[in-house]
């Protein structure tokens, strides 16, 4: 019996968009990963206090939350593709200006702008994938997830040698070149769209809303209301929050945990790089598999098992079996690309995907802000890493429960040709 599913559309004609998506993925973690390896060099110029260094560690998640929440209303007004251009320009400007900063507060302030642009990019990518690649959501999500892994793993290897050779300002500012490269495909996409150009012209001229043409992708208030009342959306938020908090806590504290176990700070830093690199295979496989499965919850269970075993090993025997714990912990965050893929897979329209992505990532990162700081406070209060790691194990339990609801094969939004009916409220 022949398949009723239409064959995938050819890549030809969409390659410029694919290039734009992958280039944005290459930018999404650079502003975070390029600074931490050279923070001691920066401190020599600015006499940055320990508090300011701590704030610098919190800025990424906070910026992702704040600017990620702004991405949906901005895209509602400008359109999705012009908003992506704006996000990339913000990030580029922040990277260049913090490279020219003359004080620690200025460096922190421009870091917020650089990371804020990336926070908007985080939110905009899943609906762009839904808009242009509805037939290849898993494959394209895997492509930009791999690019994100590369943007996490490469800068720590390059930043310090460049800073030692030509100064930390070049080491921080040189990544703006990648931001410029990512802008180019989206400018081409907007330039080729008559409706997008007309809409932007009318915005500048302040034409009445009723006279403006439709832009490439916009999310309205109706889509936002539908998403915020959705049980599926809230399950995605909680799963995203739990996975992100565990990941960022380890980015912040893993070297210290291993140093306190007697392995030394330098060894801890190397294991942190291994932890980041090991996310690459999961980024390739998990969204592709999720797109082919009716319910990808078994994948979530597998990644949660890796989280659990790795955290237990880190808690009970950090200095023995360290390589095994790092492998397991590196695989654990594979839930993250699954959640990104589900934003597109569970949305009936790109407009719903815009609203859903804004809620999941904006609120998910906002909840995760307290993770690294709270774990640090708990460690100081208890004098041990046992209680903080137990908290992370509790978050893995939350991931398992919320992931069951997030992965169920339901769609968000009315079927084509039908009036919307309210989904059960959260």
Automatic annotation (TrEMBL):
TM spans (from-to): 49-71, 107-125, 137-160, 172-191, 232-251, 271-290, 297-317, 323-345, 352-377, 389-407
Coiled-coil portions: none
Gene Ontology cellular component annotations, sorted alphabetically: plasma membrane
Record bears the keyword Transferase: no
Main location per the UniProt record: membrane
Record's subcellular location: Cell membrane
Domain Major facilitator superfamily (MFS) profile positions: 13-411
InterPro entries assigned: MFS, MFS_Cyanate_Porter, MFS_dom, MFS_trans_sf
Membrane topology: Multi-pass membrane protein
Keyword entries, A-Z: Membrane, Transmembrane, Transmembrane helix
Gene Ontology molecular function, alphabetical: transmembrane transporter activity
Superkingdom classification of source: Bacteria
SUPFAM superfamilies, A to Z: MFS general substrate transporter
Protein known as: Putative MFS transporter
